[in-house]
User: Fold this.
Amino acid sequence: MLPQSLSLKLALALGVLALVLMPHFASAYYVELGSYALIAAMLALSLQLLVGATGIVSLGHAAFYGLAAYMVYFLTSEGAPRSIFLTLPVAMLASGVLALLVGALSLRTRGFFLLMVTLAFGQMVFFVFHDTKIGGGTDGAFLAKPVISFFDWQLPLTRRQRPIATYYVALFLLVAMYLFLVVVLRSLFGRVLEGIRVNEHRMQALGFDTYRYKLAAFTLAGMLAGVAGHMWAMHRGFVNPELVGWHRSAEALLMILLGGLGSLHGPILGALAFTGLGEAAQLITERKLLVEGAVVLLVVLALPQGLSGIRLPRFLGGRRDKGGSDHG
Amino acid sequence: MDVAGLLTQLLNGVQYGLLLFLIASGLTLIFGVMGIINLAHGSLLMIGAYVAYLVTRHFGTLWLALPVAIAAGALLGAILERGLFRYFYHRNHLDQVLLTFALILLFEEARSLIVGNDFYSVPVPQLFDFSIPITSGFSYSAYRFAVIAACLALALGLFLWIERTKLGAVIRAAAEKPEMVDILGIDARRVHLTVFAIGTVLALVAGVLAAPLYSVYPGMGDQFLIISFVVVVIGGLGSVKGAFWSALLIGLVDGLGKVYAPKVAGLVVYLLMAVVLLLWPSGLFGQQRR
Assistant:
């Protein structure tokens, strides 16, 4: 999961540098698109803790993402913007609590059963926002975007600077989330999760209460998805039930598959590629879903190890593929 | 709430539950034998409903839609199984999920290209276009009765097929111990093809039956798919019998929920699922396998 070689670490650092410099060269439109891609990357990265690290495939992850966005709406229902230092922790807490509840029930099952249960609970949350009036119903609702302020002090920003600030906040949070997950996966906790992915029975035989570890991972992943959902609200200033819908969960899974299951940077790569692809598709055709569907099909059929599975030819310094990975 | 209204909702619940069984049984049968969950199963129902709409629009009768749906279902099922699914039986869950998710997107786009994104209603066939008086002040739609009868007949047929025929015995064996079936020299490919085709036909037929009741609209597959998942989770993954009783239970709970708690009726089935998971994590009729 973790970056091992020096060249990969260097490449990641260069990637971050490119993302830091991007707003200085790109137009406002591409900064907005960049924010969107970074948020998608956070969602996919949070799900990777379950899928890639622990081997749990959940189809309800968007519920935690969407709930966080709705929490921002609930906090700013009077129309006055709140500080990000209030909205972010509250959104994460709400997503974490929901993930704890959903996880406690879903993790009693495994495999496809778990997949269906997480999907159903995710749809339950969707139903709450879709069919009741608490969050603006089907049409969604506008909200006051959180501001960067601390007590009476507020970061002075012009209208044009605000999307750029949001971009940098999203970038900062993505990098922070990545580094946090590196620490988590290096710890004993992370090793246990890896053990569960490879062979859960063996971990149980070693005396680990694997249910608790999985539940902790599920809750943590939910909270991190909450960070992504919060940033979506801050970026768009709008919430609707589609944020919670299971198509978004499936898209997050797709980003992971696109980027590669076996690495922590894979989902980020996958999310950026997926967003870019969606943008390119819109230039060619109005039928975005057709392109999306065809790409998913192609990736599943031809690139089971994702973009990171593509190896450079050896004379360019690429390493030989060691055969099948340990994901089953 | 008067008695007549309650009775209507109960009958509606039974009819809805039996329709769910047609979808859930295909899902659970395919899982039992092949170990794969087809997320596009709801899209198959949608295809059935659009077949019903197109056939009634062009030929003016729903009756023709049934044989068309059966033939189309068998063909589509065979193509999907031979062309795609069989390469995925031994892949990991994530690949299988995304394969079937891609199919949903493609089916929805194909639907949008061919018939557009509008809502359509499909008329009830003339033969059943009346109400059957049950008491003096209460009558019930003949078409809904016909749907109940058709679903029960299909359920009985499915039961006899699985329990009383040789192929059915193979299917039960394959769900229990697939490697034994291979060792015995039974052609697994034929079994897979048959099961997949039957599951597809059931979903399309469910779509045809549902078309006059719920009208025909984009994304209708998703709605039925998710509730069918709840049915399968409660009934136990891989168990057709479990799917039957749990589909009836969900149908009745949904019907009664609409009477007694109309505001949260949609939530009740999920709460039921949560309770079942707390008490019987592998479903009412399921054994913990795989």
In short: Chain A touches chain B through 43 residues (CB under 8 Å).
